[in-house]
């Protein structure tokens, strides 16, 4: 669905006299993966409320508009048009995957070219397809989550010291990101551990498989001790459950599963399997900056599922608006480029070349609480997160294929 030119909207002037700065949330709020979208929505609302409690930005408060994309690019584009019509200056999105985000970025680019007075930014906090900041990069898109290549680099570095990894099987969702996770896993792990054997691979439909026993069975039969999977949400939890039911005690190398609902419970119920994943911070840590924020998030609908990068996304937007002296999306985009910011995660930097945020990545494994390396359980279980390694942001400054076209400044 192509966006059509909207009826003229009243522009928000730089001195809009306290008028709210409207931002939109577009993600899945219904269907089998709705809980993922709901948690991102709760984290975003927390971040915006936090900004508003501090006086907002330029003397103005944020106003959140929420839309359900139903895990569909078509519905996401309808939502984008509604957000534009309502006067939104930026869209926060990403949890529905690369197909939805790609459609939004392309549509926003076309709209912005045709409607320079009513442009809109796409701030992507979850879709990690490297092409979004690579071959298909856009001036109007900013990624605040580490991409697939960055996350796999952190995991591959981790595997160097894991001598119990000998044979690897790949189980992934059959869409752009799933195929990318499998390809990068094979490439980067083979480079880090040339002694490892890759013994099989399979793809499955996204969000539609109810019984993963056939997939887990193939991996077990191959003799693999490790499964590289980009699965998330229900697809990851059901895979872990099926493996446990057939007695398959595998390690899973995953990008973000430990931060989604039900995954720790799946490991605890299976009583076997180790989920090793990567995120911008260690959940339930005693970090003096992050721990108080996580405690506040627990009082919101997000509960224990704190996604610090969503908070950082709002902070970056606010800082760019301050520096631009305006909420005009073009001026804000230029202010975001190359922006270095002292965030709760430490200093982060929005790379000018491709609009990829450089932020640290923490590798952790879901294991039983032992009172030493893991002191707190998650999801009401006696399983929590053991920190295994940290890859600093500077080590994830990987090459990009982006050749960005920029509008005239001003």
TrEMBL record:
Pfam families: Peripla_BP_6. Residues 20-357 form the Leucine-binding protein domain. Keywords: Amino-acid transport, Signal, Transport. It comes from the Bacteria. PANTHER family: ABC TRANSPORTER SUBSTRATE-BINDING PROTEIN, LEUCINE-SPECIFIC-BINDING PROTEIN. Belongs to the leucine-binding protein family. This is Branched-chain amino acid ABC transporter substrate-binding protein. It comes from Cupriavidus malaysiensis.
